[in-house]
Structures are given as C-alpha cells and as structure tokens.
C-alpha cells in the first residue's frame, strides 16, 4: 500500500522540479504526431527521441519520454477513427467502431469518446499503480506460459466478434494470419518460412504488414470517393461535438472499468504489450453488451473499450518496469535505457531506496493524462480537418508517409517491401471477401500463441494435467468459459424473448386483421 | 583580356582530374593523415536500449573527444546481429564505420547456425571490455539451494526440475556440457526455451522454471529475486562476487558468455593499418579516461582495456569453442 511519507516527498520532487513540467506538452505533441502517422509505433516514436533526452537532467528526461508515451497511446486512434488505418497495433480495435462512427458523420464524437476514455483510464491505471505497485510486480513474475497461452486464446476469441459473411473464410483468414505470425525463428530455435531471407529470421514485421493489409484495402475503397465521408454536411469539425463525445464517455463506467482492468493486467505482463489488451477488452465488451449486434457498426462502447485498455495498459507496463526493471513492451524497454543512461537502474532496489522518485514519476504521469485532455482536443480538432480535404490529395500523401514511416525506422527497404507485399495480399483478400482483420489478429497473436503453447508443453513435459498446478491459468480459462456461457445463455434468452415478441406481434396483427374484417362483414 | 585559351582550360581540368584520381589512388598513409575528417558511424546491430546501444551512447562523448569528430549511432537490429554485420561489411573500408556489438557469441553463432554469408575472421576486435558469463540461478524463494543439489535431483529423475534457457546460445552449450559432465540424461530433461535472455531471466526470477541458465550480467537489477547457483567462469567475477564458480561443484568444459565492445572489419585493418591504429589508440585513451570509467561504471557498463590482441584472441577462442560444440547447439 501507499507509503505516506514517500508520497509527501514525491510531491516535494514534483514541485521543486516545476521546470521539467515544461516538457509535458512538447512530449505529448511528439507522441501524438508520431503515433498518428501510420507505420510508426509507440516504440519507434520513443526510440527517435531517446537520444534527445540524454541532454536533459534525469527527471526532465523521464517526464519528456513518459509524455511521449502517454501521447502516443492516444495518437494512434486518430487515423484509426478517421480513416480506418490504425496508427499503431494498439489502436487496431479502435478501428472497428471508431471508423463506423465516423462514416456516420460522428467522427467528432468518436474522437471525443476515445480521448476521454484514454485520459480517464490512463489516470485510473496510474492511481492503481500508486497503490499496488509492489504486489502487482510480484504477481506479474508469477505469470507463466500456461497463463499467457490462456490470454492468447482469449485474444483469439475476438475473431468471433469480427463478423464476416462466411465463417469458413474468416477461419481460413485467421489461420493464414497465425501462420504468417509464426514465420521466422521460433522460441526453440527452429526457422520456418523465411525463404532464406535473413530479414525474416525475426518474423514478419507486424507494423508494415498490418498497415499494408489494412491500408491497401481501405485506401482503394476510398479512392472511388471524393471525400472520406460522402455526405457534405457530416464533414464538419465541431468542438461542441468533440466535447459531447468526451462527456458521453462517463455514461459507460462499466466499460471503462472492464477495459482498465484488462489493460492494466495485460500491460503489466512482460512481453505482451498493449497490442493485445485492446483486442481482449473489445471482444469482452462486445460479448457482454446487450446491444452486441450494433458493435462494429458504430457503437461508442467499442471505441471506449479499446481505448481504455490501451491507456491503462501504459500504467501496468510502467509498474513492471519500475518495480522489476523488466520491460513490459518495447516502449518501456526504451524507458529503462533512458533510466540507465542517467545512471539509475530500475528494479527492486530502486523502488526500495528511491520510493519518492517512483511516486513522483507516477504522479507526473497522472498530470500528463490531465494535460493530454487539453492537448488532445486541440490535436483532434486540427487532425479532423483531413475530412475536408479531397481524397485525391489525402490518399497519396498517406501512402507516401506510411511508406516513409516503415522505411525510416531501420533505414532498410524491408519495411516498404513488406508493406507492398501485404498491400497486394490485402487487396486480394478483400476482393474475394476474406476478412482482412482476421489476418491481422492472427499476425498479432500467432507468435504468442505458438511460443506460449510450446513453452507450456516443454514445462509440463507433455502432461496436460499440469494445468491443475497452475491456478492462475485455470482461473483465466474459467472466467473465459463463464463469460462465453453467460453470453450464450443471454443470447438464448434474447432469442426466446425475440421469438415471443415476434409471436405476440403476429397475434396482434392477426387480431387487428380480425378486428378489421369483422365490421366489414356486418 | 586574359590569355586564357582552350588549351589552358584543358590543362587545368587535366590537372584537376589528375588531382582527383590522385586522391582516389592516394596511398593509405596519406588518407590516414587526414582521418578522421567527417563524422564516424557506429553500427550497433541491436535495437535502441540494449547493452551495446547504451555502451555506445555512454562511451560516445569520450571517444569523440579522442577522434575529434562526432560519432553517429546507427542501430541495425535483426536476425541475431546478422543484418547489422552484413551492413557493416558492405560499407567502404575507410574507417568511417565501426561496430559496437556483442561480437562473441553472436558473430560465430550467425555463421555456424544461420549460414551467414561471412566468416568469423571477417571482423577484427579493437577492444571487448564487457565479458559476461552463463549463470545458473533459481528463484530466491525456491527450494533448491546449491548446484550440487540440482545435479543430484536431475540424476535421480531428469524431469524433476524444469530448466529455462535460450536455444542456440553459449548458455545452452554450457548447460549441456555441465549435464554431460555430471552424467545427467539430457534427453529426458524438461527444457523450456526462451527467445532472449530477458524472458529467460524473468522466468527464473518468477519461478516459472526451477533453474535458469542465462547470461549473469542481466541478472544484476533482479539480484534480490534470484539465488545464484553456479557461474560458468574460470575465476571469481568481480560484478557478481557471491556467485559460486562452476568449477567448485563440477569439472566441466564451458564456453564464455557474451564479449561486447568495439570492432571493425578485417578488411579495414588490413587495407588501412594506419586508420586502424588511430582507432585503437582513440579507444584505448577513451577507455582509460578516468571520467569515462566513472560515468560508465554508474551505468553498469564496462570500460576495461584488453587491447586488440587479447580481445581478438578471446573472440576467436570463443568462436573455436562454439564450432567445437556446434552439434550441442543444433
């Protein structure tokens, strides 16, 4: 629990280093802009600014980098909502309902929902972190391969919510995605499907592949229109509507809470990162919602669920980093490097000896989330103007930027080539009505599924009863099946109710018909 | 009017041409005299934030001071350093590209296991200050107390303890060698593979696996969460003095862990010996700079000066041992 005297010291650090607060706004803007560019992930945005932070003092550097992190967590949702192209993998689930909303002319509201969910859950994540950082860190270390496999399976269940015309094509597309996700050298040192190319030894780079798959199909379908939104009246950018969306978020505390819990736990697990939390949060919210049929067609709850998991995952990831010195994902790996470059080694001893500093960092992140609200509104106000630009100018610009983004990171042609190959694949899949998003889910989860399954097998020596020794994994599976069963039961009840309603309607109709016919007789 | 004729113009341009071609064909000594005249790229075949990246960035100001030119860090991660190594070999041998890398065991491993299109000898070391060793460790709360206990348990029942290790690594070779020496039936072991030292360490500290075989240096931030059982080094390791040496429990051959530091292509060393000398002198001076030593120590980075000969020998020895035990790695 919280250490009060350390907390007071932390407030002291916060207020004596007010100068470093000046880095919050630039950091947020850098994060927002970079992550809004398709092809540049949060990790890359941070890698780009890391060398800059070397010239700052420690607290300023950390404030700057964590601000980039906070901003980047939200920035990806802007292109996801406006153009159906996620800025980074963690905003993939935001596209499902965010883009549908913006097609209905509700892009202002959708961005508002995303921003408020992002800030609220970002704050929630860090407040929780302040209270439970140490116990959380210990729990995280106990999460083993079987538990992780259960999480990956849970993520795969999202496929059921994606909805496509043909179930068989959906499954086939997912299988293709998983296969693509396992290309390269696996955890046991075996190499598959690299075509002899050394670049593929680490697997297919997920970001260019994802952008290629999603952007190609999306841009081609947009190319036939004059503007991203057809109806001229809906293209407006309205601060009032953005704020309405922000305010509307508060109507769904349940969705926010569920998203935050899923986000924090999954974000805290080393090596999983936020790209999976949003998928699970979305799938769970959809499954448990009464109006699940409207998900994917512009239900604000879908946007809120996805964004809340991304934002709170940041807090979870920071917990693992501060308490154990273990990166939860790529972004925190960069943060650790920044710590080390300022002669501070995060980990158990850091948290024991420098608790005020840890609290100060967490408090500063809460401040950042609040500032993000203001900066974010400004950012989406400016970014939304893309709706007013003709697609013939927007599309080439996006293609060029995305290609450059995938190239810039390593300075290798591998990124753009991956983008191109997957763009062709995306076009073909779309042409024959295979769900592209199922392939993306497969690519994002394929490696984790395989790795954790293989490790579970190695650890258990092939004995399936090993799961009985892992109460955590059993709990995850139990919750998952309970959730499934409840949904199925709820659906059945709903179907019955609908059938009864239909019956009643028919009866009423018959009665009225009878009533109509009776007088005519007389 | 000047008497500037076409003939003069021809003479001048011919002279210019001669001068240019002279520059191109300039003997290496002359080129070395002006070296370095522009910024030097430091190729790090790992992502931002790893050990080599941090080492290069921390050491950069001190090396810049000696060379009188700025350094530019170029991260080329991927394929277990193969991409970065190939990139380095493709650069002109003019001294404007140097490497900061975990030379051993990554270069030998890419050659032995990934059929990388280069030889171990294509790289020459300047200095490899950081030496890591495989550490066998268990979670600090775990039931196993010593390495002898591990051996005893595994001899009775090879599946009684689970083991976490990175495949195709020096750690893996050491694990197999130790169990062979102890007479443990390796085919029945429960080996859990991790694709990196970090995940293997987390699994060890979190008691996901009973014993982990991983590079010891990375354990330092997690020191309070693990119990060291045996370190695969010949003599006590100064950064982990409480780790018992493997030799104390078991007589076995072993491979040294990662050797990280500064390297160039052998082509540069052979074709531009003067430039190589300048680089060696600069790295030596910077490594011995008390301020550099102090700063890097705070970041848990090494600055020890072994020099090119000793470093090269350590690197080639490691490569030879890796080649010897390559069958264990496959």
TrEMBL record, chain A:
Residues annotated as transmembrane: 20-50, 62-82, 110-132, 139-160, 166-183, 195-216, 261-282, 322-345, 357-381, 393-426, 471-490
Domain DUF112: from-to ranges: 23-440
Pfam families referenced in this protein's UniProt entry, alphabetically: TctA
Superkingdom field: Bacteria
The keyword Transmembrane is annotated on this UniProt entry: yes
Keywords: Membrane, Transmembrane, Transmembrane helix
Keyword field contains Transport: no
Record-linked PANTHER family: TRICARBOXYLIC TRANSPORT PROTEIN (PTHR35342)
Protein name: Putative tricarboxylic transport membrane protein
Organism of derivation: Ancylobacter rudongensis
Lineage, uppermost ranks: Bacteria, Pseudomonadati, Pseudomonadota, Alphaproteobacteria, Hyphomicrobiales
TrEMBL record, chain B:
InterPro entries (alphabetical): BUG, Bug_dom1, TAT_signal
Keywords: Receptor
Domain of life: Bacteria
Family statement drawn from the similarity comment of this UniProt entry: Belongs to the UPF0065 (bug) family.
Protein name, as recorded: Tripartite-type tricarboxylate transporter, receptor component TctC
Organism annotation: Ancylobacter rudongensis
Upper lineage: Bacteria, Pseudomonadati, Pseudomonadota, Alphaproteobacteria, Hyphomicrobiales
């Amino acid at each position: 629990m919280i250490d009060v005297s350390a907390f007071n010291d932390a407030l002291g650090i916060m207020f004596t280093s007010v100068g470093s607060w000046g880095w919050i706004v630039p950091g947020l803007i850098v994060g927002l802009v970079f992550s809004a560019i398709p092809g540049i992930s949060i990790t890359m945005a941070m890698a780009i600014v890391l060398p800059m932070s070397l010239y700052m003092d420690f607290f300023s550097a950390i404030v700057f980098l964590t601000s980039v992190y906070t901003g980047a967590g939200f920035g990806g949702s802007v292109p996801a909502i406006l153009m159906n192209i996620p800025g980074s993998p963690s905003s993939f689930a935001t596209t499902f309902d965010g883009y549908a909303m913006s097609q209905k002319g509700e892009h202002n509201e959708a961005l508002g929902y995303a921003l408020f969910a992002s800030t609220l859950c970002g704050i929630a994540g860090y407040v929780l972190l302040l209270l439970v950082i140490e116990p959380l860190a210990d729990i995280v270390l106990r999460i083993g391969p079987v538990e992780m496999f259960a999480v990956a399976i849970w993520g795969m269940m999202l496929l059921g919510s994606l909805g496509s015309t043909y179930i068989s094509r959906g499954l086939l597309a997912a299988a293709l995605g998983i296969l693509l996700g396992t290309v390269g050298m696996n955890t046991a040192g075996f190499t598959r499907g690299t075509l002899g190319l050394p670049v593929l030894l680490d697997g297919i780079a997920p970001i260019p592949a994802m952008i290629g798959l999603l952007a190609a199909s999306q841009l081609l379908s947009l190319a036939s229109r004059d503007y991203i939104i057809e109806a001229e009246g809906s293209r407006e950018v309205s601060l009032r509507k953005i704020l309405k969306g922000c305010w509307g978020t508060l109507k769904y505390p349940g969705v926010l809470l569920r998203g935050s819990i899923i986000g924090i736990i999954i974000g805290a697990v080393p090596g999983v990162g936020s790209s999976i939390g949003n998928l699970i949060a979305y799938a769970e919210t959809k499954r448990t919602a009464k109006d699940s049929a409207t998900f994917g067609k512009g239900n604000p709850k879908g946007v809120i669920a996805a964004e809340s998991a991304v934002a709170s995952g940041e807090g979870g990831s920071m917990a693992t980093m501060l308490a154990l010195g273990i990166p939860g994902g790529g972004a925190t790996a960069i943060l650790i490097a920044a710590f080390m470059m300022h002669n501070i080694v995060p980990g158990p001893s850091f948290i024991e000896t420098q608790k005020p500093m840890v609290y100060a960092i967490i408090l500063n992140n809460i401040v950042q989330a609040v500032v993000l609200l203001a900066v974010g509104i400004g950012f989406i106000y400016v970014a939304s103007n893309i709706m007013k630009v003709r697609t013939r100018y927007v599309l080439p610009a996006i293609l060029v930027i995305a290609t450059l983004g995938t190239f810039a990171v390593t300075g290798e042609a591998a990124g753009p080539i991956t983008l191109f190959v997957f763009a062709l694949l995306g076009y073909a899949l779309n042409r024959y009505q295979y769900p592209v998003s199922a392939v993306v889910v497969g690519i994002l989860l394929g490696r984790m599924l395989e790795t954790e399954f293989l490790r579970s097998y190695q650890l258990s020596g092939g004995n399936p009863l090993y799961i009985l020794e892992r109460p955590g994994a059993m709990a995850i599976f139990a919750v998952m099946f309970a959730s499934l069963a409840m949904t199925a039961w709820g659906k059945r009840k709903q179907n019955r109710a609908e059938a009864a309603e239909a019956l009643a309607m028919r009866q009423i109709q018959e009665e009225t018909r009878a009533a109509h016919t009776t007088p005519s007789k007389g | 009017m000047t008497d500037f004729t076409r003939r003069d113009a021809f003479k001048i341009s011919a002279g210019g041409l001669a001068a240019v071609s002279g520059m191109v064909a300039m003997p290496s000594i002359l080129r070395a005299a002006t070296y370095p005249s522009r910024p030097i790229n430091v190729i790090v075949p790992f992502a931002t934030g790893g050990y080599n990246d941090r080492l290069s960035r921390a050491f950069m100001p001190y090396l810049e001071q000696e060379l009188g030119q700025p350094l530019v860090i170029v991260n080329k991660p991927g394929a277990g350093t193969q991409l970065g190594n190939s990139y380095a070999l493709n650069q002109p041998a003019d001294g404007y590209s140097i490497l900061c890398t975990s030379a051993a065991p990554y270069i030998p491993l890419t050659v032995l296991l990934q059929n990388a299109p280069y030889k171990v000898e294509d790289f020459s070391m300047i200095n490899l200050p950081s030496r890591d060793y495989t550490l066998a460790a268990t979670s600090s709360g775990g039931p196993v107390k010593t390495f002898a206990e591990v051996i005893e348990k595994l001899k009775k029942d090879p599946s009684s303890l689970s083991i976490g290790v990175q495949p195709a690594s020096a750690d893996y070779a050491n694990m197999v060698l130790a169990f062979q020496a102890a007479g443990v039936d390796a085919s029945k072991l429960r080996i859990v593979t991790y694709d990196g030292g970090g995940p293997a360490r987390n699994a060890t500290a979190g008691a996901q696996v009973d014993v982990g075989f991983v590079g010891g240096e990375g354990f330092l931030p997690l020191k309070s969460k693990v119990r060291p059982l045996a370190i695969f080094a010949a003599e006590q390791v100064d950064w982990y003095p409480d780790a018992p040496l493997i030799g104390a429990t078991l007589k076995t051959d072993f491979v040294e862990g990662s050797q990280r530091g500064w390297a160039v292509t052998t082509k540069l060393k052979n074709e531009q010996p003067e430039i190589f000398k300048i680089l060696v002198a600069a790295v030596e001076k910077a490594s011995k700079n008390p301020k550099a030593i102090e700063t890097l120590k705070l970041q848990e980075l090494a600055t020890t000066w072994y020099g090119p000969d000793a470093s090269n020998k350590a690197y080639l020895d490691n490569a030879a041992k890796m080649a010897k035990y390559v069958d264990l790695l496959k």
